[in-house]
Amino acid sequence: xxxxxxxxxxxxxxxxxxxVFSRMIKAxxxxxxxxxxxxxxxxxxxxxxxxxxxxxxxxxxxxxxKIHIYEEDFERFANGVNDVLDFVQRDMEESSSN
Length: 98
Hints:
single chain; alpha+beta
Protein backbone atom coordinates (compact mmCIF):
# COMPACT_ATOMS: atom_id res chain seq x y z
CA UNK A 1 0.00 0.00 0.00
CA UNK A 2 1.27 3.47 -0.77
CA UNK A 3 -1.74 5.50 0.31
CA UNK A 4 -1.00 8.78 2.10
CA UNK A 5 -3.41 10.52 4.42
CA UNK A 6 -3.41 13.03 7.25
CA UNK A 7 -2.74 11.38 10.58
CA UNK A 8 -5.50 11.91 13.13
CA UNK A 9 -3.07 13.54 15.59
CA UNK A 10 -1.15 15.56 13.01
CA UNK A 11 0.72 18.62 14.24
CA UNK A 12 0.28 20.49 10.99
CA UNK A 13 -0.46 20.16 7.27
CA UNK A 14 2.93 18.52 6.58
CA UNK A 15 2.41 15.66 9.05
CA UNK A 16 1.46 12.96 6.54
CA UNK A 17 1.45 9.25 7.23
CA UNK A 18 2.22 6.59 4.63
CA UNK A 19 1.12 2.95 4.93
CA VAL A 20 4.14 0.79 4.11
CA PHE A 21 2.89 -2.73 4.93
CA SER A 22 -0.48 -4.21 5.86
CA ARG A 23 -2.07 -7.51 6.86
CA MET A 24 -5.77 -8.31 7.12
CA ILE A 25 -6.86 -11.17 9.39
CA LYS A 26 -10.44 -12.41 9.07
CA ALA A 27 -11.74 -14.12 12.20
CA UNK A 28 -15.46 -14.85 12.15
CA UNK A 29 -17.47 -11.65 12.62
CA UNK A 30 -14.24 -9.74 13.32
CA UNK A 31 -11.57 -8.49 10.95
CA UNK A 32 -8.19 -7.29 12.18
CA UNK A 33 -5.91 -4.96 10.27
CA UNK A 34 -2.26 -4.63 11.27
CA UNK A 35 -0.59 -1.76 9.43
CA UNK A 36 2.99 -0.54 9.52
CA UNK A 37 3.00 3.18 8.84
CA UNK A 38 5.65 5.86 8.44
CA UNK A 39 5.47 9.60 8.96
CA UNK A 40 7.26 12.06 6.68
CA UNK A 41 9.89 12.27 9.43
CA UNK A 42 10.43 8.52 8.79
CA UNK A 43 9.11 7.49 12.20
CA UNK A 44 7.41 4.08 12.16
CA UNK A 45 4.36 3.05 14.12
CA UNK A 46 1.88 0.20 14.04
CA UNK A 47 -1.83 0.73 13.72
CA UNK A 48 -3.94 -2.23 14.89
CA UNK A 49 -7.63 -2.04 14.04
CA UNK A 50 -10.44 -4.40 14.99
CA UNK A 51 -13.59 -4.15 12.87
CA UNK A 52 -16.70 -5.90 14.27
CA UNK A 53 -19.97 -6.37 12.42
CA UNK A 54 -23.01 -6.25 14.68
CA UNK A 55 -26.63 -6.78 13.72
CA UNK A 56 -28.95 -4.32 15.42
CA UNK A 57 -32.63 -3.52 15.05
CA UNK A 58 -31.68 -0.79 12.57
CA UNK A 59 -29.44 -3.04 10.46
CA UNK A 60 -25.78 -4.03 10.35
CA UNK A 61 -23.38 -1.74 12.18
CA UNK A 62 -19.61 -1.77 11.92
CA UNK A 63 -17.80 -0.98 15.17
CA UNK A 64 -14.11 -0.12 15.06
CA UNK A 65 -11.41 -0.09 17.74
CA LYS A 66 -7.89 1.11 17.04
CA ILE A 67 -4.59 1.34 18.87
CA HIS A 68 -1.23 2.75 17.80
CA ILE A 69 2.11 1.30 18.90
CA TYR A 70 5.01 3.69 18.43
CA GLU A 71 8.48 2.71 17.27
CA GLU A 72 10.12 3.20 20.67
CA ASP A 73 7.66 0.67 22.16
CA PHE A 74 7.89 -2.08 19.49
CA GLU A 75 10.20 -4.40 21.44
CA ARG A 76 8.33 -4.05 24.74
CA PHE A 77 4.99 -4.55 23.00
CA ALA A 78 6.21 -7.65 21.11
CA ASN A 79 7.70 -9.10 24.32
CA GLY A 80 4.44 -8.50 26.20
CA VAL A 81 2.32 -10.11 23.48
CA ASN A 82 4.69 -13.10 23.30
CA ASP A 83 4.59 -13.50 27.11
CA VAL A 84 0.79 -13.53 27.11
CA LEU A 85 0.56 -15.94 24.16
CA ASP A 86 3.12 -18.30 25.78
CA PHE A 87 1.12 -18.29 29.02
CA VAL A 88 -2.17 -18.99 27.24
CA GLN A 89 -0.64 -21.80 25.19
CA ARG A 90 0.89 -23.45 28.30
CA ASP A 91 -2.40 -23.09 30.18
CA MET A 92 -4.38 -24.59 27.29
CA GLU A 93 -1.96 -27.55 27.09
CA GLU A 94 -2.24 -28.13 30.84
CA SER A 95 -6.03 -27.91 30.70
CA SER A 96 -6.28 -30.39 27.83
CA SER A 97 -4.04 -32.93 29.60
CA ASN A 98 -6.23 -32.95 32.75
